[in-house]
Structure formats: C-alpha cells, structure tokens
Amino acid sequence: MNICYISNSASPSNNASSLQIAKLCEYVSKDGHTVKLILPNTGYKQNFFNFYNIKYKYKIERLKYFKKFPIGINYYLYSFFSYIFTNISAAS
Questions:
Q1: Contact assessment for residue 57 and residue 49, using Cβ atoms and an 8 Å cutoff
Q2: β strands within the chain, DSSP E
Q3: Residue 10: closest CA among 52, 36, 42
Q4: Which residue from 14, 47, 51, 79 has the highest number of Cβ atoms inside 10 Å of its Cβ?
C-alpha cells in the first residue's frame, strides 16, 4: 500500500508531534508499506533519520515554496500545495 503523510510540522525538532509523525511513518514502513512524508522546507540541516534514530527508511519530500513554518493563510496554501503535489507524484 502507498501511504502519503502530509505534515506541517517543522522537522526534525524536539516537539512531540514531530517525533510521533517520524515514528508512525517508520512503523508503517516496517510493515512493508511504501511511505512518503511531505514536510515544509524549514531549512534545518540535520539528518532526519539520524535525529530520530529511524531504522526503517521512507521517502521524505520537502516543499521548497515554504521556507518557514506555515501559519495564517500559508497554512491553507501549504495544505493545498501538498494535496496537489501528492496527486502529481502519484500519477507519475
């Protein structure tokens, strides 16, 4: 099964929501599913998989149009662009 998880959380970070998203995607990919995590490109340079100690890798896509955490109207635009990006990548 192909699963696409859209998150507006800044990752990697020490927030509980970011940790929960990373571990949920790892657990689902461990069961043999294809997982893609879509995140805003917040500019963090740390390795995502090393930061959360992820053993079962999955694909991470960062939307380059969002350089910081999406708030206000950008939150809705981020959701819209994530949906469009998901449909484009699923078609190809």
A1: yes
A2: 2-6, 34-40, 59-63
A3: 42
A4: 51
